[in-house]
Amino acid sequence: MIAKLLKNKTSVEFYKFIAVGIWSTIIGSGVSHILLEFLNVNYFIASAAGFISGVYAGYDFNRKWTFKVKQEKKYTEIIKYYAVHIVSLILSLLVIPVFGIETPITVVLMVGIPICTNFVGIKKFVFKR
């Protein structure tokens, strides 16, 4: 069964997407932490800078490695890439008023929603695969 999943193109793309997401999260969290702890930047500004840098860190990896896009980059592509991430962020934040901030289901949904919406959005809307 695992061998079959590894041969499926979408499964391979999804696993690569998860790996890129981990990398992007490390970069974004690192930027936020440095800004907050060492430079005493406002929390919201540091969080926004972390989000922006984390998303950007994943863009080229997802473009070249995950989805193997060969065409020349377009500025509209990166705008769409950020738009997908922003929509996913908003959708995941909408979970809080429904389930509360400290429930296990909230944590699962706040992680799961962006993974799914970002993967589908980036694959179908941004890179059109």
Number of domains: 1
The total count of strands amounts to: 0
Q: pLDDT average, as an integer?
A: 93
Largest sheet: none
Rg to the nearest angstrom?
16 Å
The dominant shape is globular
Q: What is the topology?
A:
Layout: H1 2-7, H2 9-38, H3 43-66, H4 75-93, H5 95-99, H6 104-126
Helix pairs in contact: 2-3, 3-4, 4-6
Describe the protein's architecture and organization.
The protein has six helices and no strands. With 129 residues, it is mostly helical. It has one domain (2-126).
Summarize the structure.
By secondary structure, the chain is mostly helical. It is built from 6 helices and no strands.
Keywords for this structure?
129 residues; mainly alpha; globular
